[in-house]
Input
Amino acid sequence: MQHITTLIFATNNEHKVQEIRKVIGSRFNIITLKEAGIDIDIPEPHDTLEANATEKSKTIHQLTKQNCFSEDTGLEVEALNGEPGVKSARYAGGTRNFQDNIDKLLIHLKGKENRNAQFRTVISLILNNKEYLFDGVCKGKIIEDQKGIQGFGYDPVFIPDGSEKTFAEMSMEEKNIFSHRRKATDKLIAFLNTLTP
Ligand code: IMP
Output
């Protein structure tokens, strides 16, 4: 099938690229920053997922003048008043170390009965110089001891509602059944499909 729309995905996170490519399939051609020859660490300076997603897509759009999208995701934990939220990547400090972030989260939740949490993804699409936002939420629980080795980030401590496994115990296909990123991507695809029937 011919590719109808080509979009640059403004991320350096290979896991995100693979997850989104699996959902989008071959109807839309997704190009990574690396494939576009862009080597920058895109800033995430804002205090909302929406503003960070916009910052990332606008940065890449200004550089390339091409249609592109970005996403920003946060883990929002009920007993921590929504933290780490927009700070999820740097929760334990500037090094963005996944294990340090998990360790800090588990320490903060030690002894807490309320383990409710949700991942929230915001996608910012820039198409023909106009911005469109899409979001996706996955509710679940934070467990006490991490399990599984798949995925990335907080996957080893998050069990989505409707499953007994952590995201890190799932294949990418299984994770995509539940995932925040897939739900936001579904909305992106539905929107793109209205433009390119
Ligand atoms: P970003 O700022 O959107 O790149 O993501 C913030 C942080 O949230 C990442 O560094 C990960 O630690 C975490 N994160 C984002 N998406 C996921 C996911 O699907 N599973 C687990 N952790 C995630």
Notes: Residues 42 and 111 are 37 Å apart (CA to CA).
